[in-house]
């Protein structure tokens, strides 16, 4: 399983900027509302997807008061999130890089038009459902610094499926439903996960030149700027790409 620590680094920087703009707060509150509706419960103990999203929101520094107020409104019959549906777009970025776009929208036509515009503008091509998703696996992902034997042992003991070592840190892959349980087990042993999320991991990656890779990154950034887009995944290999070059 290919590591993607550089992708995590990019996402952390973007999350910090989005938090300042308030965008990340609205993103997670929308996701939490939709998960509560889809799971039929506002109780995190009875709705694993809701529980995972609440954990992710807290890790992203979404104020707990915001989360609690939303859950109380939903439990009281508020229909927030009832008009949103999850939509997945698949296709190719420049250079033939596979790309998956996850959106949460209350207007399918608007979202499709915006996503299609970005694909066309940046030299990508939209594909049919299933055209590239077979190249990815849904996994829990945890990044721990620094890498150490103790961290590896703790991760395996907590239920990690796979580990990827690097000089910068340790990438830990888990069952998607267990990622926050594994992260909490690591925290209990004194480790501090820098990044915890449920992600789509490519089974194989594609390497491009610096110039071509930058085209893909610009396309990803443009997609992530769309209000309805929640996550963007690609199989671009960033190992030999200078970020911000």
TrEMBL record:
The processes (GO biological process) annotated in the record are: regulation of DNA-templated transcription
Gene3D superfamilies documented for this protein: 1.10.10.200, 3.30.70.980
Provide the primary localization.
cytoplasm
Q: Where is the TACO1/YebC-like second and third domain?
A: 84-236
Protein family (similarity comment) = Belongs to the TACO1 family.
The record's subcellular location field reads: Cytoplasm
What UniProt keywords apply to this chain's record, in alphabetical order?
Coiled coil, Cytoplasm, DNA-binding, Transcription, Transcription regulation
Task: List GO molecular-function terms, semicolon-separated.
Answer: DNA binding
Q: What is the superkingdom listed in this entry's lineage?
A: Bacteria
InterPro entries from the xrefs? Integrase-like_N, TACO1_YebC-like_2nd/3rd_dom, TACO1_YebC_N, Transcrip_reg_TACO1-like, Transcrip_reg_TACO1-like_dom3, YebC-like
Protein name, as recorded: Probable transcriptional regulatory protein Mrub_0674
Record's keyword annotation contains Cytoplasm: yes
Q: Which organism was this protein described from?
A: Meiothermus ruber (strain ATCC 35948 / DSM 1279 / VKM B-1258 / 21) (Thermus ruber)
């Amino acid at each position: 399983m290919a590591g993607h620590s550089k992708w995590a680094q990019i996402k952390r920087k973007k999350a910090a900027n989005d938090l300042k703009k308030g965008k990340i707060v609205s993103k997670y509150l929308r996701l939490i509302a939709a998960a509560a509706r889809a799971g039929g419960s506002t109780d995190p103990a009875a709705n694993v997807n809701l529980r995972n999203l609440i954990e992710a929101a807290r890790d992203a520094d979404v104020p707990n008061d915001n989360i609690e107020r939303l859950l109380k409104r939903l439990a009281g019959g508020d229909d927030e999130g009832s008009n949103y549906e999850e939509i997945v777009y698949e296709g190719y970025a420049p250079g033939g890089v596979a790309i998956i776009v996850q959106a949460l929208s209350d207007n399918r036509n608007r979202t499709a038009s915006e996503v299609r515009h970005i694909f066309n503008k940046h030299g990508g091509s939209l594909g049919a459902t299933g055209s590239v998703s077979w190249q990815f696996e849904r996994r829990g992902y945890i990044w721990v610094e620094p890498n150490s034997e103790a961290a590896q042992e703790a991760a395996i003991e907590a239920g990690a499926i796979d580990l990827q070592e690097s000089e910068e840190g340790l990438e830990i892959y888990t069952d998607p439903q267990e990622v926050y349980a594994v992260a909490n087990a690591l925290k209990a042993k004194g480790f501090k996960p820098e990044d915890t999320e449920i992600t789509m991991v490519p089974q194989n990656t594609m390497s491009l030149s610096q110039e071509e890779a930058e085209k893909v990154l610009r396309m990803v950034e443009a997609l992530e700027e769309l209000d309805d887009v929640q996550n963007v995944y690609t199989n671009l290999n960033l190992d030999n790409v200078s970020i911000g070059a």
